[in-house]
Amino acid sequence: MQPDEEVAPENRTVRVTVTVTAAPVEELDVTTVVGARCVAGKVVQTVTLTNGETVPVSVEITSPYGVRSPSVAPGRSVTQTLTTRLPSIAAGQVGVEAEATVAGQLVSSSADVAFEAVSCR
Fold first, then answer.
1. Positive or negative CA dihedral for 69, 73, 49, 113?
2. What is the pLDDT of residues 55-70, one digit of tens each?
3. Can you list the domains of the chain with their CATH numbers?
C-alpha cells in the first residue's frame, strides 16, 4: 500500500472548532485601608483604596461619617476623607462595595473594614 492510499481522500482534511471561554472572575483585587488623622482637634477619617485590576473600578464607601463614590484607575490608589467634626470617634466599620467589568463580565465585591477608636484630645 502506498502512503496516499492509507487514508481515503474524503478523510484527509480534518476540521476542528475550539471555543475558549474565560474563567469567571470571582472577586475584584481592591485593597482598603481605613485610618484617621487629627485636623484642628477634630478626627478626619481616611479611606485608601488600591485597585490591583487592569480595568477601572467603581467603589462606594459607606462610613458612619458619610458616603463617597470614587472611581479608581487600574493599578492606582485613591484616598477619600470623611470629616467627622468630632474630637473623638468610637471603633466601627466602613462598608466597601466595588464593581467593574472584567473580561466582559460585571464583577462586584464587598467588604466591611474595621477601624479603631481615635481621639484628638
1. positive
2. 999 999 999 999 999 9
3. 22-119 (2.60.40)
Q: How far is CA 60 from CA 21, 27, 45, 50, 56, in A?
A: 30, 16, 15, 13, 13
d(CA 50, CA 37): 19
* Half-sphere CA count of 3, side-chain side, radius 13 A: 0
DSSP letter assigned to residue 81:
E
The predicted model scores a pTM of: 0.78
* Triad 45, 51, 54: Cα angle to 5°: 165
pLDDT tens-digit readout, 39-48: 999 999 999 9
With a cut of 80, say whether residue 12 has pLDDT above it. Answer: no
Q: CA-CA distance, 110 to 93, in Å (whole number)? A: 13
Element (H, E) at 66: strand 66-68
